[in-house]
Known about the structure:
This protein has 6 helices and no strands. The radius of gyration is 14 Å and the shape is globular. Helix content is 82%, strand content 0%. With 103 residues, the protein is mainly α. The protein has a single domain (3-102), classed as Tetratricopeptide repeat domain (Serine Threonine Protein Phosphatase 5, Tetratricopeptide repeat, Alpha Horseshoe), CATH 1.25.40.10.
Amino acid sequence: MDRIAQLQEYLAGNPGDSFLKHALALEYIKKGDDATARKLFEEILAHDASYIGSYYHLAKLLERTGDVPAAIAWYEKGMEAAKKAGDMHAYGELRSAHEELTF
């Protein structure tokens, strides 16, 4: 069983698990399926805005696919969420990626 099938099987039993969805999205990126990965990251953040890691990966995906305004917006949302959660490491990574894109 490949990694995607395995993660989908786990998700069938735990459909709201942000960690599993995030891992699945990363597998789709590896396979070159950015559209499915984007959908999964957006689902995660719509239901669990505190899942900080997904902001960075979604913004990087958008940046790589040429949707720079959306990438900037997701970096900014991620910085707000990281600051609210007190996760200064994630905040710094998001801010650094944001600054590279905007300056």
